[in-house]
Structure formats: structure tokens, C-alpha cells
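Case study B.
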Amino acid sequence: MDTKAKNDTKRITPPHFMLPVEDYRKLTAPESIALLGVTRRTGKGSNNPLEVLLEWGYRGRILPVNVAGGEILGYPVYTSLLDAPEVPDLAVICSPRNTVPEFFRQCAEKGVRIVIIVAQGFTDGDDDGVAMQEDFLKLAKEKGIRILGPNTLGVVNNFNSFCTSFIGFINPLAPVGVLCQSGIYVVGNAGLMGGTGLCIDPGNSADVEYAELIGHMARDPRLSVINIYMEGVTNGEKFMEAARDAVAHKPVITFKIGSSPAGAIAAGSHTGSMTGEDRVYDVAFRQCGIIRAETTDDVMDFNKTFQTFPGIGGNRIGVVSISGGAGIIAVDAFARYGLQVAELSEATRKAIADLSPDWFQVHNTIDVWPAAMKYGYPEVYRQTLSALLRDPGVDAVICVTGSFLESEKDFIDVSGIIHEAASEHPEKPIVGWTYGGRWQEYIAKLEKEKNVVAFSSLDRAVKSLAALYHYHHILQPRAEESLSAFYGKNPCLSLPAAGKDALELISHSPSGFMTQEDAFTLLESYGISGVRREKSENVDAAVAAAERLGYPVVLKISSPDITHKSDVGGIRLNIPDAEALRQACAEMLASVRENCPAARLTGFLVSEQISGGMEILLGCKRDSQFGPVIVFGTGGVFTEIYQDIALRIPPLDSDEILAMMDETKISRILKGYRNVPAVDIPGIVKVIMSFSDLVMNHPSIQEVDINPLLAQPDRLVVLDARILLG
Amino acid sequence: MDTKAKNDTKRITPPHFMLPVEDYRKLTAPESIALLGVTRRTGKGSNNPLEVLLEWGYRGRILPVNVAGGEILGYPVYTSLLDAPEVPDLAVICSPRNTVPEFFRQCAEKGVRIVIIVAQGFTDGDDDGVAMQEDFLKLAKEKGIRILGPNTLGVVNNFNSFCTSFIGFINPLAPVGVLCQSGIYVVGNAGLMGGTGLCIDPGNSADVEYAELIGHMARDPRLSVINIYMEGVTNGEKFMEAARDAVAHKPVITFKIGSSPAGAIAAGSHTGSMTGEDRVYDVAFRQCGIIRAETTDDVMDFNKTFQTFPGIGGNRIGVVSISGGAGIIAVDAFARYGLQVAELSEATRKAIADLSPDWFQVHNTIDVWPAAMKYGYPEVYRQTLSALLRDPGVDAVICVTGSFLESEKDFIDVSGIIHEAASEHPEKPIVGWTYGGRWQEYIAKLEKEKNVVAFSSLDRAVKSLAALYHYHHILQPRAEESLSAFYGKNPCLSLPAAGKDALELISHSPSGFMTQEDAFTLLESYGISGVRREKSENVDAAVAAAERLGYPVVLKISSPDITHKSDVGGIRLNIPDAEALRQACAEMLASVRENCPAARLTGFLVSEQISGGMEILLGCKRDSQFGPVIVFGTGGVFTEIYQDIALRIPPLDSDEILAMMDETKISRILKGYRNVPAVDIPGIVKVIMSFSDLVMNHPSIQEVDINPLLAQPDRLVVLDARILLG
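Model:
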């Protein structure tokens, strides 16, 4: 089933912005390469990329360039690329930053199409560096040159024995495609990922970016998994489209650094203050099906798991263990990672009971020790494992073994038994945990046949199995569905006719908060109803408005300068009659003038008092990488106390909106909870869809807080809204 | 400072229930040992404890007992212990369970004081096993015998070459004391803890339990850290007292299994349903200062960290790294685990800037690579590390190194430089992360001098450093303070005079929920005020009561059988006048009779309507191990939606109560938030103290929900309370 799914995805149309095939070929498997500014030093610590290239056994043509000319390692050196006898597929500028402009000029003049710039000190350095980067980007654009870097080790293609790094690191071959923005992953691959097949480091990503490369790795049959080491993306929308496409083909595991910005974020809205950068990346990853690694250990563990097992039938896991305690540890980990212990069939339980002492209680996780004392350890382990693998209710098995005996006394080595079982049941992953002083040796032993993976802790074993399940049963199917259905369409719906006038509001508003009245008008043009209300310039007008609306009413101060009205006495609820209203007006003016003496006051807003209903927050924040991010959750005065929110990056279909709502605690109440009646859920979905269109249609909207959106069984109404333009 | 603190703690009085010194000596370092039921088989897979004992080099006298007599491994075998020439310090019954009663009888008759029972199949087996365990416990009590086990590997004393395990595992010596209830930790110690000094396995803990043993390990100068592998404790109060005492001496790291009970807990109160067993263990551990390991990797990592570093000055951590990316990964991990990146002094920043290229920006985490390209890697690493260690604003340093070069080309090996720096600054821990294909080799290299620890991931490195900081600066000081001040006193305050009558309520109530009226009376006897209210048998009485209380009023149904009144229409708020009240009574009766036809109705409860204020939950659940557990948090209809609660096990002083309140989100509101005024916080603390006395004074109270406790700026009042007796 999994294999079939993979073949089907081959038909997926690649993103239109993917790097052209010929450019990608020149970058990753060039027939000729120029090394501009290559050092003349060789040997230990010389960091000579020519030496590395030769050691790797690169078989293309090499054109070294160094102003001093002469010869390096037997290769004639050109004093300028212009003297070289051919236009190389790829040029690598591998000298310090001050020499980069001249070498880049030579590349442009020679007609090179792909250039890697290795040096540091551009946007990662000082202002001079930033200016230099702008200059060569401008020239590149004019000449149609594509740049990888700067601040990069370039490309490592283990299939073609090709490597542009100036450090010749330990480099085992593995079916892993890697995109990374730091040398740490390139050179550390053996320890951090277990090896690589193809590794591309865009460094500062001044030009070529992840989104252009990942589709190629997704379609490369030599790679079974993609790793991304990310500092940040330049274009979130493109990245998400590319990642979704890749996830439909194979697992994408991302380790994102910078999850903890040092400073707090200053923001003008609840939405802004609750949606830090990392939270936006997190939801973007989840929406496109990327598996986010929390640590580098996760990357290593998930890689070997995906390399070893083509799929998994479900999340029901059997446990065979040398110890009863390990079974409980496993069940604890299942709960953490969304797996479940397999309910064993009657036949399996009987097979195990027959092996065991009379007093033994057969649990769903099997402790083989009591039976082993009777029938001998290896035989009991073999029969138990076999019974579990034959059980149709078991999708995978965790084998716990001991590695605590010295080799000459080791009567509990069951590696061979486990390998045999794995080869008989290739459809059911077997994952090992081994504990004891010889754990490292035993992990190697268990993994020798490449049909089992093993770990130093049960937590890591279970987490890896969970990633396998999650990818095959949730992430990949969802990515495929998204590509074929909703996300291929134009994301923005057409602006409703009534909205045409409202648009004027935005185009004529200066940056800053819209007045509340304008915000209501804009929302209503998208069919999102505001409370019945009237703007009044003075107290008499307010009283007249209240007569029309009907008491009780709500009174608010109207001012373009006050964002949190309730903090300054700018809101009064439940005003029963005209007398009370006049008094409230007077008190409000006094309070606001005292608290915000500089605020411009433009009168009062009088609105109907609505009682009952649940207070919802519906917000949006424009992220610099990913564009608008929709926020839904608990609203009202306690919004930031409970921080009960869920995020999504639009466009959104109704399933996605319902999933977003289900992530919040308040959704349990909205569906009807104890004596609180259910509200109009389909109505909320519709409002969120319209809201999503609104923020996508108007790029000048920076932040929106609709708070509260009051939800009643038969009515949805905006009581307050703030919209920040920029 | 840390050394001083440790010496002071030596004066702490040990818990009175600690195992007598002579019994502990006989258990862990016996001069003679009897092996009852020892097998005649020897060699690989024979599981012969006599053979293990000899291999370990035990130097005491050994008395093998086996009904067949003869000789094993050169030792004469007695057919009965009664034939042995001496009373051994320790007897180990190491045969299957059916033979245990007879051997135990022999021990009793011979006058043995300490017996280890190895066999499985007692409370861990079937009903027969449970009965057998009861029998030998009874005999033990009569004869004053102490039992370790059953279902245990016994004792492993690496200092005295003594081991009762029948499996002779790999066993490096380390200053680690271990208490464990499963063989998994005993035999796997090298892989799970890095080795042990002294290990005691109480197995099923039928008699000797953790609380009696831990104080000895705390006072053993050969041990620098204590590990506990826990399935559960038998007496929570004793365990907490013993653990607090131990934490004052040295770090106690606990790995608790069974965090995920398979089934949901059925409970009659919010408090009951939100406080699962694992959550109670968790708060117990935190209250006595135990470090809870989430995985076995944590145990291993924390052990080696505590063994290597006697202390740490604070939580400001410097980072020296071969890669800029690693610095960001470290800062992410600091945020996760409560550390912070050190702000470098001007002198340090200048020293680093002087080494680096002009364009280089000195951040708080130092990427040495750009400077290394100029001055040579090892020298730059040395100078940077030295500058950080001299900086008074740096408490510890994380060194990131690469292990990705083949040995003949390795110019980045700085292990020697790091060792030198560590020996010059023993007061500042240095923790390493090394990445690359040779990471295992490099960890060993970095740890060779035993003055540095290193890890396979930065996450693990930072988590371990955080445990070190947390123990020395928070857990140990708090444990010492607790022992010397509050917790030594009698926990229960005296019952207030007015409470004497209220006590009758409890002693005469059958099991089940108290009526609400009785619950109010009991609370008020402890000074916890209920809302002004009157019980009324019929509608006319209700109207009369309302006149006395003043409108508006609240009407509730009175019934011993209805626990969630609002679910069945049994509560009506804000009733403005007599007419509305009569109607509400009629509607309520109809609704309740429809929803709960079997409920006994005892009239109405009319009470004053109080508006405004915050709704708090104050609850208690009696845990079978730890006794009463106090719960504080968000109350009202959304209690279980937000599950915003904190737990504590009493007795509680006001600091502990404030700390509990601060763990909840609602506490931010209670202190005054935006336009919500602050409530009477000292009043709440007083209420919680009285509540704590109440539940400690009355063991028959099983669960309490005070929900809501309404908090206003000048008033605290219970609106509803349910008390379950049992």
C-alpha cells in the first residue's frame, strides 16, 4: 500500500519555481569546475578544496584559478578564469570576501551560469559585507547567473564522489538528502545524520533557496529521506508549496534553530504578542507535513528508521522484553508519542501462557523472564516474538534485550533470533532497545542486517516508531490530498461586491490602527457582522442613538489612539437608561482624559448590549516570511491569561478550520458543554473563511484582533475589532 | 559555598524510621551469608548466585543450603539451614516460590534477622502468591525478621565486592547509590547509570521499603548521587520525609515508571478527575526536591554530571563553538531548561574581537571559526575559552567541538586545551558537545581526565547542566530549609473550638457525599465562609427566605444524590423577585425530576446573589499513597476545560501556598489584571491553610470540591461545595 502510494506521487507536478534540471545538474554533478582563489597550501589544516576534490576522486575537469599562477598538486593554475580553456559548469569562489567581487566579475564575463561563494562576512557580517552582497546579486541578475551562498561549504554529492567543501570530513554514504544553512550539518553528517547521499548548503541563501532545491531531492530515487537544517526561509509561501510536494514523495525531517528569540516581541495586539516567530514556523511545518526534529538525536534516529522500514501498518505495538519494567516504560512512551500497546489475540495470549509458569499473568507487553527460567531464554524469546509478529493486531514490535553480560557468559544474546524474525516479517518493523554495559556493541549487532533499528533508550525507540507511523498514516496522505485538491487552486477568493467600497478604507488609511468604525465596515463588507451600533459626536447624540438601539446599551470611547479601551475606563457595559448613560459619558471622558491625556477623542460609540454567548478571539498577524497567520481561540479579557489559541496559515478549507478549532480548549465549550448550549459552528467556519480571504486580499493589513467575536447558538457578532495597517 | 552547605547537612537528624545501622550493615555488607535453595548447576546460563559471589571475590563466610546436600564449587552444602554452624548475618532464599515457605521457616527457627527472597510470583503473580506472601510476612513480624523482596536480585555492594544477584553482569564502580524495584536497573547499571557503588532492590517492597534505606545512602560518603527506579511507594508520607532528608545531602534522581495508567480515572469531583496518580507523584517529587528523570538517558547524563562537578556558581552559561549554528542551538536549549546565555564583559568581548576578522560581530555565544581561519584553530579556541572562564559573568561553559575529521588530518582536536582550562578553573563546569563521525571516541577523550563531561547532543548537555544548577541553587537549599523550619513540626494544627460540633457531622455521616448544608457547616467551622443562605423545604419557605436575604437570590435544588446541579437544571441565578422565584422553583422541580427521576429531593437552598469576582477551585483528593492532595486553580463551569490547576501535598506554609498559586494562570488575574481589580490574596492563603488543616484532621474525607470559591477585593466566599466521605 505504501509502495503504491509512492508510485502515485511521481505524477505530482513539480512546483513551477523549481531550479531548472540543467542548472541543478551543473550544481550537483558538474562535468567541470573552476576553483577561484584556491589556496596554494596543501596538507593537514590547509583547507584546500582542490585537495579535497582529488581525495574524493572527482572525475570531472578542474580549473584552479589563483593570481599567483603556477601549479597546485600537479594542476596548472590560471591567473584569471578568463584564461581558462572552457566555460566550467560550476565555479566555486573559495577565497576571503575582499577577493570575491573580482572573481565574480570574471565568472560573469566568462559566461558561467552557476557560482558558489564560500566566504563569510556578507549579510552575516558588517555593513560593507551587506553592500558587497547587493553588488554581486545585481550583476548576477543582469547576467542570469545563479548563486549558491555566500557563507557556504557548497555541495557534497556522495553518489558522484563530488565535494566542494574545503574540509575533507568523514562521510559515509546514506540515502539521505540534506539541505542546510550551516557547515555544522555538512561536515558533521556522520554524527548528526548517519551519513548523506547529497547535501546542498545555500548558506546565507542570497539567491538559490530551499524551495528551488527540495523538489529535486524529492524526485531523486537514490534518496529515501530529506533532512533540512534551517535557520530561516526567505519566502514562506514558496517553501510551503515545495515542502508539501516533497512530503508527498518522502519524509522531510527539519531541525529548525532559533526557537527562542532573545527579546520579547513588542506587538500592538493579542494576536501579535502570542504568535512568536517559532510558533509560526511550527504551524507552517505541521501544515505541510514536515516532521520537526526537536534535537539532533531525533534527526539521526528518524533517518535510520525511515531508511530501514518502507512503511508500518498502524500504531498498535507489541513488546517483547527481558524485563517487566521495560514493558511499562514502553507503554509510558507510547502515551507520549501517540502509539498504543497492541491488544493481543486469544491465540497469542495462549501461546505465551503455555510457555510461562502457572502464576504468570499475560499482559499486553510480554516479560519473557519468568518463562525463560523454565524453558531457556533464547527459545522463549524466539517463540514469543514469533507469536506477536503473527498476530494480526500487531503492527510493529519493540524488542527489549539485555547487553549486560560479559561475552563469555552471554546466554541472552538474541540478535540472531531477532534478525530471523525481521526477515520473515518485513511488513512489521522491529525496533530494539538494549541496556547494559555493552549497549553500543549490541546496537551495532542488532542493526547489522539492516532490517532492525536499535536505540540507547526506549524513549528514542518509541519516538522513532511514532515518526514512522505519523508520516505514513497522517502526513503523507494529507500532503497528497492537499496537492491534488485544495491547495492547487488560486488561494484568494474574489472580493465580494460590497467590499469594493470598503477597500477604499484601506487604500486611504495611513499606517496605524484603523478606527473601530472603519474596521467594522471592512469586516461587514466580507459578511462578518458587527454589533448594532451608532457613532455619536457628543452626549446628546449618544442618548438619541441609545433610544434607537434600545436599552441596555454599551458605551465606548472613540479614539484612534487608544487600543486597550478597557484599561483606561473607556468601556461601560449594561447601561439601563438615559440618565445612567449621561453620567457614564461624563465619567468616561474624565477617566480617559486622566489616563491618556494625549489621545485624540472623536466622540462615543453606542451599541446594543448583548448578553450571554462565548467570547472568541479571531486574529491575524502578517509574518514576514509566511504572510498572514490566522489565530483562533479563547477571547475576552482572559485571552492572554489562558493563551488558548491555534494557528493556521491560509488558504484554509473547512476541514483545516475545524481542525484548528479542535486544537483549542474553548472548542469543547462551543460544541455544547454541560449547561452551556452549543453555538453555530458552521457559522464560525464561514466567518473564518471570509476572514482568511480578507487578510489575503489586503497585504497592507499587518495585524487584526477581532476580540470578542461573540458566539451564541443563533448569532455570531463582532463586539470589538482592531486592525493595524502598515 | 557548596562544600560548606554539604557539611552543615551532616547535622541533620535522620528520619526515625530509618533501618537500624546494624540491620543495614548486615544487609549490605554481611560477614556471613546463607544461600538457601542454591542451584547445583554451574557455568554459563546456570544463574548460580554462589558462583557470582565467588567471582566477585566476596570475602565473608558462605553457607549454601540445598535439600540434596553434597558440595557446590568446593563448598559443603547443608540440607537445612538448621544444620549450619552459625547464624548468618544475611540469608538469601534463591529458589522458586514453592520452596520459599520451608526455607523461610528455617531462617526464623535459626534466628536470622535479615532475609532476601528472590523468587517471583507473589503479589506480582496470582492469588496463591499473595497468600504465601501474607504468611511469611506474618511470621517475620512475630520473629522480628526484616525481609528484602520478594521478586528481587537483592544487594550489590561494589565497594565490598558483594553481590546477591544470580546473574553476574558487567559492573563498573561509580559513586552512585541505587534503589530500584526491578532487576532492569541492577543488571543494566553500566548502560543505564554508568555503574554503581551500592545497589539495593526491594522488589515488591513487601517489608523493607525505600524510606528506610535512602537515609543510609544519603550519609554514605562514598556515594555522590542517589538513583531511584520506582514503580510506586508504599507510604508516601514516610517516603517524602526520607527523600527530603536525602536531598539535603546529595542529589536524588528518580525514574518513575507507569506515568500513563491505561484507563481513565472515574471520579466524583473535578479534583478527582484532574489529579491522576502520576501527577501526584510528580508534585510529591517536586516538593521534596527529587530530580525526576524523564528517560533513562537523563539518569546516565545527570549521574556523570553530578559525579564530575561539586557545584556551579549560577545559571549564566558561556558558549565556545566551532560553528555559529551550534551557539543558536545552545540558546534554544537554555530557554527550554531555565539557563541563560552569559552576557560577556567588555574585556571578554574585546579579547575576542581582537582575535577575529574586522567584519566579525561578537555575540554572547562565540563562533571561533572566522578567527581560526586567521590565527589557527587550536590557539583561537584556547584563548577564547580562557577569556570566558576568566569572565566573572560566566558560571559554566559549553564547548562545542567537531569530531568529523579522519585522525591523520585532525587539526581541530582541542580536548587537551579543554582539559587544561578545566583544571585551571575547577569552580566552573565545562560541558562538551562534539559532533561528527568520531563522536563516541571524542566523548571518551573529553571525559578522560574526569574534569569535563560530554554528550552526543547539545540538548542533553544543556539539560544536564540545568540539573546541576537546579539542584545546587534551588532543590538542596529548599530541602535544608524545610527540614530545619516548617516540616519538622507537627503538621496538623489544632481543631478550632467551633469545629468540635462540625466533627460530629463527619463521624455520623455514612460514606458518600455530605449534603451541601453539612459541607458548608463543616467549612465554616474552619473559618471558611459560605454564602449567606437558607434551606427551605418548600416554595413558600423559599420565598420567605429570599425576603430575609434580599433579592436578587440564587436558587438551588437540595438533594444528596445530585453532584453536578447545573447539568440538570438544578441551579438558577439572579432571581429578581418573589414571582420569578415561585416560577423558578416550579421549573426546577420539573427539570430535575425529568433528568434525575431517582434522586431524593430535600427542598431548596436559597442564597444571596453575589455578582462580580473571580471563580476559584479549591479541592482535595486523598491519594492512597500520599494522603490528601490540595488542588487550587481556575474554578467555575470551565474548570475542566482549562485544567488550570496546581497541586500540593500538605502540610503547607504560606510560601508554599503562594508558590502553588503562582503556578496557575488565574493567579495573574487574582493579583489584578487590566480592569479586573486584585482580590484578597492573603485571605486566600489563610483559607487554603485552614482547608489543609481540615483535610489532614479528617482522614475520612476522600474528595472535596469547593467550586467556586468566589474571590472579590474584600470578600472570599464559598458558593458551592461538595465533600465525599469514605
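Chain A touches chain B through 99 residues (CB under 8 Å). The remaining cases will be described in the next quarterly update.
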